[in-house]
Amino acid sequence: MRPKLCMGLIIIFICMAATTATVLAAPHLSWYTQALDYDETNALIIQGYLENDGTVVIDRVNLLTLNIYFKQKNTDWWFANQGNWENIPVYLQPGDTHKLKLRIVNPRYYQFDDWKITGNVNYHIIRTADL
Questions:
Q1: Would you say 46 and 33 are in contact if contact means Cβ atoms under 8 Å apart?
Q2: 81 closest CA partner among 97, 94, 70, 96
Q3: How much is the pLDDT for 20?
Q4: Which of 44, 49, 60, 90 meets the CB 3.0–4.6 Å disulfide criterion with 124?
């Protein structure tokens, strides 16, 4: 009876430890824009960086989508352009950053006084079992 009880307790402990480890592995990748302007060819240049503010290693950005909004004096924000970038190779440990200079080659050209960017980042993590 004792060996079965000990085995049962060991199995319960292992299941609890595995569940806790899964919960504690929290992936999160954020995009921060530092500058935005047109270049001499009228391409829209977006400079910024990705930051791994999660707890696992990220090895690829599957899709980065950025929505660009402009504003002029006495106007409200309007949607100006969208950019999508796929399969960006990165290797980011928790806390690491990766600078990027992105281009939208044929954007709609607008004069603007201010800008803001929203977006989504879809990424791939390296699970502990993959290492």
A1: yes
A2: 70
A3: 42
A4: 60
Closest CA to 25 of 45, 46, 54: 54
E runs forming strands in the chain: 29-38, 44-52, 57-71, 78-92, 97-104, 114-126
Query: By CB neighbour count within 10 A (0-12 exposed, 13-18 middle, 19+ buried), where does 50 fall?
Result: buried
- Report pTM: 0.75
Return the structure tokens found at 54. Answer: 């999660």
d(CA 99, CA 94): 15
